UniProtKB/TrEMBL annotation:
Its main location: cytoplasm. Binds 1 Mg(2+) or Mn(2+) ion per subunit. This is 3-isopropylmalate dehydrogenase. PROSITE patterns: IDH_IMDH. Its EC number is 1.1.1.85. Its cofactor is Mg(2+); Mn(2+). It catalyses: (2R,3S)-3-isopropylmalate + NAD(+) = 4-methyl-2-oxopentanoate + CO2 + NADH. Belongs to the isocitrate and isopropylmalate dehydrogenases family. LeuB type 1 subfamily. The keyword Amino-acid biosynthesis applies. It comes from Ruegeria alba. Residues 5-359 form the Isopropylmalate dehydrogenase-like domain. Pathway: Amino-acid biosynthesis; L-leucine biosynthesis; L-leucine from 3-methyl-2-oxobutanoate: step 3/4.
């Protein structure tokens, strides 16, 4: 059987810097664990614009559709700020998400003990936190029609439409239940069924899908209460399922419970391909960080943990993902810190490559 395939798109700014560390980790899994990937690399964002005049070439898009998983660094930067909207670096990423139809966005919020002091919440409220937000990514109010700014009488009206079909709700719900089955079998669905019809339908469909997963304990919560509960007692949750708009806000909120942007991975999954694996794009939550790009200061952990998610969700290598996450946890427990993680007195920050090397050393 051929090796699973991985397309690496480092992108712009710190993207290539953090991806260089991930490549070493991928190499380690090949050398030491016999887990070999067919890795190809291509351009996205400003890097693609510089060469092709577009932020994602058609050939790259075609390659992304064929591989088992795409791993992306980050796109964007001040150099491209004045470009026309249609060729901005971010459009490259949007095209990938749209054409791969990545409807299920997984955003973990996990608190590493060594970093619990970084949270804006009290240490005992976040220590040990490990939750996963599943956000619907391709529909809802960001895409619904009608939309626009229209003349109405003697003033203008701005309109967006929250629109969900049953099948759109069902497919993301299934992906959340599947995830819950791999975790602690607890799922909380959040909408506002009290004031929105789309929320009523959401609740109905999720309740129906739940019948196929009798082992999963399902609860429903209005999203505003969910926001309160997330900052009051986040450990009550395991998997949270929600729509595009609420998920945008709730996942950013949950992320900050656990500290630095340099730590946060994500996965965006679509429908299963012929080989049973879902279409998949893994990327850190952070952007290209132009303020620190080229200085060797970037924290590679978000991108490394994104690869751990790929191991788990695309390649069924949960034990290897655990191994990689444990190495990250141990390095942090040893007090190794990139500049974004400085808080304690008297700690000298390590560089991007030193952090990568420390994680590799722990893996050994
Ligand atoms: P950003 O995430 O790039 O940076 C925000 C702050 O966090 C900066 O101070 C940065 O130095 C710091 N930071 C981010 N990642 C870090 C890491 N791994 N290690 C250490 N520090 C880190 O967001 P910003 O500044 O709003 O956007 C910069 C560019 O990135 C823009 O062009 C934006 O459009 C783009 N962007 C791209 C995203 C993507 O590719 N998915 C997501 C967000 C922004
Ligand atoms: Mg957001």
């Amino acid at each position: 059987m051929s090796n699973p395939s991985l397309l690496i798109l480092p992108g712009d700014g710190i993207g290539p810097e953090v991806m260089a560390e991930v490549r070493k980790i991928i190499g380690w899994f090949g050398d030491k664990r016999g887990l070999n990937f067919d890795v190809s690399e291509d351009l996205v964002g400003g890097a693609a614009y510089d060469v092709h005049g577009v932020p994602l070439a058609d050939e790259t898009m075609a390659k992304a559709q064929e591989v088992d998983a795409v791993l992306l660094g980050a796109v964007g930067g001040p150099k491209y700020d004045d470009l026309d909207f249609s060729v901005k670096p971010e459009r490259g990423l949007l095209r990938l998400r749209k054409e791969m139809d990545l409807f299920s966005n997984l955003r973990p919020a996990q608190c590493f003990d060594a970093l619990a002091d970084f949270s804006s919440l009290k240490k005992d409220i976040v220590a040990g936190l490990d939750i996963m937000i599943v956000r619907e990514l391709t529909s809802g109010v960001y895409f619904g029609e009608p939309r626009g700014i229209f003349e109405e009488g003697n003033e203008r009206v701005g309109i967006n439409t929250q629109r969900y079909t049953e099948s759109e709700i069902e497919r993301v719900a299934r992906s959340a239940f599947e995830l819950a089955m791999r975790r602690s079998k607890k799922l909380c669905s959040m909408e506002k069924a009290n004031v929105m019809e789309s929320g009523i339908l959401w609740r109905e469909v999720v309740t129906r899908v739940a019948k196929d997963y009798p082992e999963v304990e399902l609860s429903h919560m209005y999203a505003d209460n969910g926001a309160m509960q997330l900052v009051r007692a986040p450990k009550q949750f395991d998997v949270i399922l929600t729509d595009n708009l609420f998920g945008d806000i709730l996942s950013d909120c949950a992320a900050m419970l656990t500290g630095s942007l340099g730590m946060l991975p994500s996965a965006s999954l679509g429908a299963p391909m012929a080989n049973g694996r879902p279409k998949a794009l893994y990327e850190p939550v952070h952007g290209s960080a132009p303020d620190i790009a080229g200085q060797g200061k970037a924290n590679p952990i978000a991108c490394i943990l994104s690869f751990a998610m790929a191991l788990r969700y695309s390649f069924d290598q949960g034990a290897e993902a655990d191994r990689l996450e444990a190495a990250v946890e141990q390095v942090l427990a040893d007090g190794v810190r990139t500049a974004d993680l400085l808080g304690e007195e008297g700690v000298t920050p390590v560089s991007t490559t030193e952090m990568g090397a420390a994680i590799l050393a722990k893996l050994d």
